[in-house]
């Protein structure tokens, strides 16, 4: 294997207008991919920024909860490029609400965006990826899809996405399409807006004592898209500063001060 890392020629990033999705998009474009940035928000400013920096990108209007919008975006990509080698199902929302405080409409909206969206997306892109000779799908779950997180809508949607990734990985292997999930811990984006007390308290359980940088999440996602992970499918990469594996005892030891 050469030292050079190769990325798909065309990659679709949902929720790419802001937050982590924008960072994945900028980085992929800087490494030579054409990035199709799809969002309910306007991504034209980011597309212009990428193009003026010498990269290649296009803006696509997409509500991930709408299967017909997915079909339109895939048609746009097929007409413009004739191929698709990567999909990052990144669009997501989080309302930090405990069980009895979760209204039914928030439950439904969270499931629709965070879980139904990636299902519709994988279904929509699979034929074009198959025609393109295969590809890689990276679903952005969360550590809330690996532990019992206090907010049921978010946690259930992300656990669902963890399982959906593994199920699709088995089905899609015959077409040369790999499917994996990335599980970020805390990352300082708009998604955590207004939650500074929650973040400060959570960081006490993070062995690394800090949030992730955008680069730290993007590198895990891009590894899974790249030709450095060609035998990796149906698995999880957790990028959380040790929170899931060691957060409990990190906090216990920090609070007791010593072991005996
Ligand atoms: N920030 C964190 O600490 C954290 C931790 C773990 C997992 N995540 C996950 O990472 C992903 C990205 O989160 P972020 O922190 O960058 O969030 P963000 O709020 O900064 O960005 C989310 C993007 O998704 C878009 N979006 C929302 N609803 C959409 C829809 N229906 N259709 C298309 N686009 C839509 C928004 O317009 C926005 O551009 C999410 O799936 C989130 O659950 C975030």
UniProtKB/TrEMBL annotation:
Pfam families: adh_short_C2 (PF13561). Keywords: Oxidoreductase. It is an enzyme of class 1 (oxidoreductase). InterPro entries: NAD(P)-bd_dom_sf, Sc_DH/Rdtase_CS, SDR_fam. It comes from the Bacteria. GO terms for molecular function: oxidoreductase activity. Its EC number is 1.1.-.-. Belongs to the short-chain dehydrogenases/reductases (SDR) family. This is SDR family oxidoreductase. It comes from Rhodococcus globerulus.
